[in-house]
Amino acid sequence: MPIFFSLAMLVIFLFAVVSIARQWIQNNNSPRLTVEAIVVSRRTYTTQQPVAGDPTGASGFHTTTDCVVTFQVESGDQLKFSVSGREYRALAEGDRGRLTFQGTRYLGFERER
User: Fold this and answer.
1) What pLDDT score does 55 carry?
2) Residues 89 and 42 occupy one common structural domain
């Protein structure tokens, strides 16, 4: 049983590494685009996990917050990007400007003055 569990964990880990590497390569091979866009929504997703080695959570929890911003481009399509907390706080719904991205990688947003 322990060997099966270890093998399963290794397969899951390798699958995750390959998926991340594939997305990184795809983003690098995508053109860098700058388009007119509007911020249509901002969301945060928070997850908590017990500190490593303590499944009961008695030692506390590790909290992760992901910031996601949705932009609408001129064609009407909506694009969602994970952004840093700093970028998230700087953006507001309704902001208009120029969105720069490469594949699924957010590169920046320059707000209209």
Assistant:
1) 65
2) yes
Burial class (CB in 10 A: 0-12, 13-18, 19+), 50: middle
Same domain, 62 and 103: yes
Q: In whole angstroms, give the CA distance from residue 11 to residue 14.
A: 5
Domain that holds residue 51: 32-111
Task: Tell me the pLDDT tens digit for each residue of 19-67.
Answer: 888 878 887 889 999 999 999 999 999 998 887 766 666 677 888 999 9
Residue 108, pLDDT above cutoff 70:
yes
Say if residue 105 is in the same domain as residue 61.
Answer: yes
Tokens describing residue 59:
């030692």
Residue 60 near residue 51, CB atoms below 8 Å: yes
Q: Cβ–Cβ contacts within 10 Å for residue 101, how many?
A: 22
Handedness of CA 25, 31, 32, 34 (dihedral sign): negative
Q: What distance in Å separates the CA atoms of residue 83 and residue 57, rounded to the nearest whole number?
A: 29
The answer on 103 and 63 residing in a single domain is yes
